[in-house]
Structure formats: structure tokens, C-alpha cells
């Protein structure tokens, strides 16, 4: 749809990087905070309150931050302690650690300098590092697609726990409203046509299976996310095609698609 498979990989890589740098840490922040507030650790920080949801009306009726903290029985120092624990758990997450390691290797130029064959400082004995990473990268798509198929089969029964109305509203939000918001964002940011169309089509893509994995780990909304991932994946192809046709008919972000097929002999 963007004219070449290399462009698809390029924009897909940008989308993955943005997810790891921005979305994953933010998700972990909320999940870790929720887990801590629900655990025995939160009871140690707020021994007089117990479970926070039971005090929600008091929080809503409070007039300021001090009232809210008082209703929860938590002092400002307790809040700081809680945020510090959340931060430490996020920073010790293997995915976040791998992102930081990759950024350090790239930004310090250690990778391009010593691992790139085109560099004058290339160390041949370290070539296995790049080869191994390339091999692992090539395995990601086929392994994840196979795993997703097996996972969807096993999780299909969870649809009984999610109402049809709820999942329908979720799909309308993800496949219609979110791409519309992206259309406005790319126009406001004055991106070129190719980047704009790529951004809109990426916005149509369903949420990843990683979201369900996090939900399963923290025991939060597993059935809801399982249904979203499964239905979103099933609707992926028609949704992307419809949006691509809609953008063409509205003459928004036109992209010249060249025929890369070799001429018949």
C-alpha cells in the first residue's frame, strides 16, 4: 500500500519503537501502581484504609489533594514511596532494560563502530552478536503469528465473558475513531503524504498481544483484552483495505504505488 515492502517495514519499525518507548512504560506505570495499591504493600502504606475502591466516593467528594490523601490515609511521603517503588519495578522490567541497552549501544555509537562490517573499527570476532540479533529479528513475525493463532484458539471461550455491545463499541473506537484522530494529528503536524498515510493505517492496526500478556500477569481485564486482540486481528485486513480505499476516494495523502513486479519475458 505504500509502494514497496521496505517502506512497510520502515514505518512498522517506527511504530514498534514508539510503542516500546512511550506506550509500554506508561502501561507498566499504571499497572504497577494498581498492583501495589492492591497488594499488602499498599496496606503497609495505608494501614487504616484497606482497599481503595471502597473509599472512591470519599475521593470524588474531596475538594483538594490533601482531602484525597486524607481519605486514603496516605501522606505525601507515602505517595512518594509508592511512586519510587513503581519506578524501580518499571526500570527492572526486562523489556525496558533491553530498550535502554539498545539505546545506549546506538547513541554511544558502540554498535555501529564495532559491530558494523562497513566500519573501519569492525571487530570480526564480535560478528556473532549482529548475526544473532538479525536471526532473532527474522523470527519475530512468523513465531508471533503462529503463537497468536494458537493463543486465539485457546482464548476463544473468553468471548462468553465479554458482551457483544462492549466489544462492538471497542472495535468502533479502535477501527474508526482512533484513525480519525490520527487524520487530524497528521494534518496538524503537516506530515508528508507518505508518512501521513502510514500513520493512519498503523492507527487502524489492532492492539498487540503484549497488552493481553500484561493483563494476564497483573490479573486485570484479561477477558476484555483477549476479545479485543482476537476480534481486532480478524478485522485487520478488511479495516485496512477500507481505510486505504477511503483515503483514495477523499484524495487524502496520495501515495504513488509503483509496480515492482518484473516484466514478463
- Strand-and-helix sequence, N→C? HHHHHHHHHHHHH
Most strands sheet:
none
Shape: globular
Q: What percentage of the residues does DSSP assign to strands (E)?
A: under 5%
Number of domains: 2
Give the rounded overall mean pLDDT.
Answer: 76
Structural class: mainly alpha
- How many angstroms does the end-to-end distance come to? 26 Å
Low confidence ranges = 47-72
Let me know the number of strands.
0
Helical content (DSSP H or I, runs of 4+): over 70%
Rg from C-alpha positions?
23 Å
What is the overall number of helices? 13
Write structural notes for this entry.
- It is built from 13 helices and no strands.
- By secondary structure, the chain is mainly α.
- Helix 10 (193-204) runs antiparallel to helix 13.
What's this, in brief?
The chain is an all-alpha fold and 265 residues long.
Topology:
Elements: H1 5-38, H2 40-45, H3 56-61, H4 65-72, H5 76-91, H6 94-107, H7 110-114, H8 127-155, H9 164-188, H10 193-204, H11 209-218, H12 222-234, H13 236-249
Entry keywords:
single chain; mainly alpha
